Amino acid sequence: MAWWGHQIVSDAERPEWTLVPLKSVGPLQFGQSREEVAAAPREPIKAWDARKYAQWFQFHGAGVDTYYDRETDAPAAVAVDACRGPQVLFDGVRLVGRLPSELEPWIEKTAPTLVDLPEYVDGLRFGGWGEPYLLGLGLVLRCQQNGDFARTRPVFLASKWAMQGSENVESLIPQMEWLTY
After folding, report:
1. How much helix, strand and coil, in percent to the nearest 5, is found in the chain?
2. Strand ranges inside 10-106, DSSP E
3. What's the confidence (pLDDT) of residue 148?
4. pTM of the model
5. What 3-state DSSP class applies to 43?
6. How many CA atoms lie within 13 A of 84 on its CB side?
7. What is each CA distance from 151 to 21, 27, 97, 107, in whole angstroms?
8. Whole-angstrom distance, CA of residue 55 vs CA of residue 162
9. What value does the mean pLDDT of the chain take?
């Protein structure tokens, strides 16, 4: 393994989580308290520093980052590490740690099926870095560089954040970094 890449945990070794669009990802439910969130990956929040973690907390052991709504202090987004986070499934499709091209047919098939959305939230949009947004599912399909490859590092959004439209997602999560471990 090269210095710029990390070992990718196989799907068989990852916990398996299910996406319930706009409501939860695995045991993490949007709207939970910080204590309830910390209990899910069984990794305590050791030092919640309002200046440093006002909107974000990383559960390094679980391979999950949580982002919080400043108004409610409740989780509003969950990002899953491509190399070692849990495998998240939606309708049997694995969303974590995949080559982006593997999910392209699924995205093209799924986007037109997303109905009953506000006018400004359509089936498929693209962010500034070219990442697909399926806001009707609360899904931003970002990538994480690993060696010579980029792997999917999905970000799952609560309804309130997703329904504000793709133009606002980046401003809602300003410190959503291009994660490297």
Report:
1. 20, 30, 50
2. 16-20, 24-25, 28-29, 56-59, 64-68, 75-80, 87-90, 93-94
3. 83
4. 0.85
5. coil
6. 12
7. 21, 23, 5, 15
8. 16
9. 81
Asked if 97 and 118 touch (Cβ cutoff 8 Å), the reply is: no
* Cα distance between residue 135 and residue 158, in whole Å: 10
Q: List pLDDT tens digits, range 30-44.
A: 988 877 887 876 665
β-bridge mates for residue 88, sequence order = 17
Residue 108's CB is within 10 A of a number of other CB atoms, namely 12
**If you search the block for the tokens 């060696």, which residue do you land on?**
147
Average pLDDT over residues 146-168: 84
Tokens in use for 86? 């849990």
- Cα–Cα distances in Å, from 68 out to 65, 105, 134, 147, 174? 10, 32, 20, 30, 12
Mean pLDDT of 101-124: 82
Q: What share of the chain has pLDDT > 70, as a percent?
A: 76
Can you tell me which residue has the tokens 């990956």?
41
